[in-house]
Amino acid sequence: MSNTESDPAERVICDGPHDGSTDGVTDRPGADLELLEPREVPLGGPRSMLVRRALPGKHRRMVGAWCFADAYGPDRVRMEVPPHPHIGLQTVSWLVEGEVHHRDSLGSDAMVRPGQLYLMTAGRGIAHSEMSPADATGTLHGAQLWVALPGRDRSTEPAFESHAHLPRMERGGAVITVMIGELLGKRSPATAYTPLVGAELALSPGGMVTIPVRTDFEHAVLALADGVEVGGRPVQPGAMAYAAPGTRELTIRTAGGSTTSLLLGGAPFEEELVMWWNFVGRSHEDIAQARATWQQERGADRTSRPRFGIVQGHDGRTLPAPELPRLTLRPRPRHRDA
Ligand code: MN
Fold it and tell me: Which among 3, 266, 302, 323 has most CB atoms closer than 10 A?
């Protein structure tokens, strides 16, 4: 997915508890959760698709190394994102319904399908496209997530991996699929560079599950459909219920029919990041250099694109980078007090 916002951080709403309790010091279950409301962002393209973006938020920019969270659908929309670059992150493509055609500058050509993990490590630089198949007319429903790479790995060689066979288990009317990291003793084969977890929770009608979680991680449950309740609190599609480190377990239930959410967590990410467009860096210079290289390479012939490469099948069409802001981009911490 391509981020069309140049400064995504300034329009988010970040709620505290809705029940009048003070700073979570209460026995009420769920009162210590923080609700992160998403904002709607158009992805662009001729039949523009709206996504709900909970990360980065104004106050809470990350959950572990998870630094970007878009939820979309279920809707009869098309995804049309031509080749664009990334650096310093991994993209996690997760579908609940539908199909998306992924192609990247490593030559990967894959149809993203529900229940399977598609993980692209951008490292020092990659380009990719994400398009609905030409004949697709059905529903699209899923999430696009980014994981920030730590400083020691942020310039690693780019890579793409897909995992059709992920650990899957049933608990309390929930089918839990471990996308990345480890949960309930089951480990995903996906490559991770920091301690983190990502799992899909698919609840059948009446389902309720309590999941023990690592107390050194922070977590968030991202609702992908109606009816998700976390700790007794409703979470709208695209929103997240955030639980700070120290939380021992999370209870997710459905308010009615079947519903889907993602559990995301990880060790708090201590490095300050500069996120701009589709780049994750550490300084204004990192970003300005990646932007300049992308702009130069997208106009160059096929033999001189050493950093981002070529995505086959688009007749050379690529997304231009937006203008850099006049001010200097500054690193931001993962959390900012209101
Ligand atoms: Mn992308």
Answer: 266
pLDDT of residue 20: 34
At residue 137, the pLDDT reads 79
Residue whose C-alpha is closest to residue 142's, from 114, 163, 165, 168: 114
DSSP β-bridge partners for residue 168: 177
List the structure tokens of 141: 């429903």
**Residue with tokens 């496209």, as numbered in its chain:** 129
Task: Determine the pLDDT at residue 108.
Answer: 98
Element (H, E) at 223: strand 218-223
Cβ atoms 228, 235 nearer than 8 A = yes
Nearest-Å Rg of the Cα atoms of the chain is 19
Q: Which H or E run includes 295? A: helix 284-298
pLDDT score of 13: 28
What pLDDT band is residue 31 in, cutting at 50, 70 and 90?
Answer: low
Query: In angstroms, what is the span from residue 1 Cα to ligand 1's centroid?
Result: 3
In a 13 Å sphere around the CA of 143, the CA atoms on its Cβ side amount to: 34
Helix (H, G, I), strand (E, B) or coil at 259: strand
What contacts 314, CB < 8 A, 6 or more positions away?
82, 83, 103, 129
**Per-residue confidence (pLDDT) for residue 44, from 0 to 100:** 65
Half-sphere exposure of 100 (CA within 13 A, CB side): 32
pTM as predicted: 0.91
Q: How far, in Å, from the CA of 20 to the mean position of ligand 1?
A: 40
DSSP 79-108: -EEEEEEEBSEEEEEEEEES-EEEEETT--
Ion ligand 1: residue ranges with CB closer than 5 A: 1
Find tokens 């995903």 and name the residue: 188
* Sign of the alpha-carbon torsion through 324, 329, 331, 334: negative
Q: Each residue of 281-333: pLDDT tens digit? A: 999 999 999 999 999 999 988 778 899 999 999 988 999 999 999 999 999 98
Question: What local confidence, expressed as pLDDT, does residue 7 receive?
Answer: 44
